[in-house]
Every structure is written in C-alpha cells, then in structure tokens.
C-alpha cells in the first residue's frame, strides 16, 4: 500500500501495522488480506479519537484491542491503521471539520458518507481489502452506497461491540465494507461466528417496498425495481415469490406505539410530504432514543470539556443534551413492536428490498438546510433496520449519471447468512 495513495484520499487517521496473530503457514480465511478500522475501535497502545481532537486529548491510549479486531487478526488479516470518521459518530455525510473529508473515490466533488467515511473510502480507493465501521443510524450503509461498495449492518447484537466507543447502544452495530462480495462473506465467517455460512435455505419471498422506492426519482425507482425483479426471475425461474407491498401502511397497522410520534418531528421541506407518515414517525422514534442514549453516554464529557464541534454536529449534540426520558419507554415499545411485525411479515426466510438511500451522494459543503428533505427521506429508510435490529446489506449496482447507485436487502434478526447468500446469488446474476 503506497503512502501517497492513502494520503491523497484522506482516509487514514493514523497508520500502523498489526500483524496476524498466527503462523504464516496456517490456513486461515483472511490470510493475506489487509484491513483498516474506524477510529472508534480500541487498539492497544493507541488513543481512540472518536473523530474529535479534544476527545483524543482527554483520553488515554487503549490498554487492550477490541475483540472484533483481534478476531480478524487471529483469522490471518493484517490491520494497517485507523480511519477518519465523523465527530462522535453523529453524521451520515462524512465531512470532518477538524481532520478533513476523505475523498469519495467515485466522485470527488461528492461526500463519501459517514460516519464511517474513511473506512468506506479506504476500501473504495483500493487501499485495503476490507474495513470495519460502525452503524448506528446508517453509518455503514450510507457510505457503502455513496462509495459504490458493499456494506453490511449485521443483526443488532450479533457482532461484539466491546472495545468500541458507544454512540447509542440500542442501535450500535459493528459492520464492514468490501469491494468484493467474496471478501465480505469471508469476514462474515469470522465475525458472525456461524457454521451455517456454506449451506442455507433459499428465500421464500422477496418483498419490494414500493412506497420506499417512490422516495427516489422516477428513473432510479423503476430501474432498481426492474433489476431486482429480473435477477429474482433468473435465479428462481418464477415471479411467484416476488411480492409488492406498501411498507408504510403495513408498519402503521402493526406498530401501534408509533401513533405517539405521528405528529412529532415535522419537516417543512416539500420532499418530506412523500415520506409515508409511519416511516417518518419511525425515524423520529429512532432519533429520540439515539439522542437520549448519546446524552447518557457522553453528555457529561461534552458539558465539562465544551469541545469545538463542526457545523451540524454541534447542533445535534446540543439537541441531544436537552433530551429527557419523556417518551423513551414508547421508543423501546416501538422497537419491540416493529421487530415482531417485520418478523411476522418475513418469517425466517423472507427478504425485504428497499433503496439504501434516497439518491446519489450530495455535493460537498452543501448547506444543512438544503439537505433537510434528503436527510428526512434517508433516515426514514435507514430506520427500518435500525429500529427492528434486522440485518441489511447495501448492494452496489453500478453508475448512473456518473454517480453510484445501490439497493438494500434486509432479513430477519439472526438471518445474516441467508441474507449474504441471497446477495451473492443476485450478485452472480448481475455479473452475468
């Protein structure tokens, strides 16, 4: 890996080498592969910076390495450093006021996506074979889509978050990126700790959430649905397993606690009017619980240190510090009800298809106000897996108008290998 290449894309926060914890002669799944980790993971002897220089200055070097990183080293991979991230993991843009913005390898005038921006860019720019990120509100799925690579948010709680700075533990997951689906699955063999990765059931149904696809522009809407339908038809030889539904209507009818949030968190942007009311409410519940848990985790540090925070981050952190426990029990009820409702819909072998994000990556330094409608649509989509705890993979489908496009597939909590196997099957059809 060339130093000039890594510096030119701005992906790395700190470069070092952690060699595999094994004999070079051992046959291990990740032998010969390199990876990087988001600067939210503890690495022994290094300060975990959390995207903010004042956090780094007020915390000591880690005394142990996060178990997830150790597992990858034990599997034969070499860690080459830590990557830039959004401050305190509180953005999906990837623009860091203090350390700069990693350059999107697909389109340099566009944001790379956050908060795992550097990890996505390091993979997209071919500096490493795979990388680790975290996904609370979309921080793996968004940069994966923006950088045109694969990204997985596994089922909540399946991959250890020990040795990872918490953002909001009800949603925090350790995810990973890869350009190559084979490598994405090899990392899954190590991190998902499952013996069922080689053989598994076929999906029973693939549900296409038409209302979610309508959040895209009409051209992308039809192209993505056609791609999914054609791939499924080639794979399984029938249209019978393809089901169309209005996910917003289904959620509204099966998650009664959402009524509390139907009139909260209104958005004045005209784009917001296209969002199903239940998905807008779901996003509101997710963001409220996320703010509350962020305050519980980091409010004291923010209040004592009064750190300098970048635009957008500062406002979100201040909003979080103002939260109380009002409606938090309702948020947790929404989580339980949504998981039950989507489990009833998909069962153990159903797949749900939605857009990863509502459009191509925004331009760099776009005003926060101008992004209001886009962000509202994005979090409505991202909250589906976030609140339910279901697993989700963002699949790159190529380039449209010189910008990356993607689609996401979701599966039931714990059905990560079913999901990865379906993604692989669709990938193989697309390659043909």
From TrEMBL:
PROSITE patterns: AMIDASES (PS00571). Residues 25-420 form the Amidase domain. One of its GO terms (molecular function) is hydrolase activity, acting on carbon-nitrogen (but not peptide) bonds, in linear amides. Pfam families: Amidase. InterPro entries: Amidase_CS, Amidase_dom, AS_sf. Belongs to the amidase family. This is Amidase 1. It comes from Capsicum annuum (Capsicum pepper).
